[in-house]
Design goal:
The chain is mostly helical and about 230 residues long. It has one domain. Helices cover about 65% and strands about 0% of the residues. It is built from nine helices and no strands. The radius of gyration is 20 Å and the shape is globular.
Length: about 230
Amino acid sequence: MSSEKYLSFNQITEECKKFYEVYESFSNFTDWNKERFFKDNFAIFSKYVDLYSKSNFERIHDMTIEYSLIGISFELFIKLCALKIDWNNCSNMYGSKNKKDKSFGFAKKCVFEDLEKRIDGNQFTRCKEVIDYIHVQRNNFVHSSFKGQNHYAVWKQMFLVMALLIDTYSFEPKNDLVNHIVENIEKNTVISGLDFEDVGLIDYVNRLKGKLSVSCDPEIEVESKPIDW
């Protein structure tokens, strides 16, 4: 009986495709499994935020990296929110043969329908606008890699929406993620030029700050006083 002497990329690729088509195990998740699932995947999202918070993006090709990371991380985050809203329905969509059911757009629709019932109308509009902008920019920088455009006032809004979603869907951020959110908002507050209308999203940031655990590392502590602009 002969055995293969070398690895086969065709075989590995097919195995990869089959692996990502199987999501039946989602339907068997216990509450403990779900808790671990959300904790582990939210930690991955937090790592993405850490990466693009610590980098300096000043040129077009840097923005390509920036929005590629932001796009991937927000897609992961929005899909986690969708699973928190309706585990059974959203886990079934990942097992669908229809690729559109696994898309960023489908997950956004699930979250927007729920979020509209939970928060102020102006806040919902801002949240939807920011997530749609991230989606467009992700596609632009991934598929049109040779050019790009950014806007000075958007960065702060992304982190405000991040805080809103974390608070609304009861994720448990570690201190360093809350610090990244606070620092990015402070660094990117518009001093001169037009800014977006304030719709009160800073309240969600202050709620996250109020839940900060006492840290042994002084480098990641922030003052507990509310931010007010």
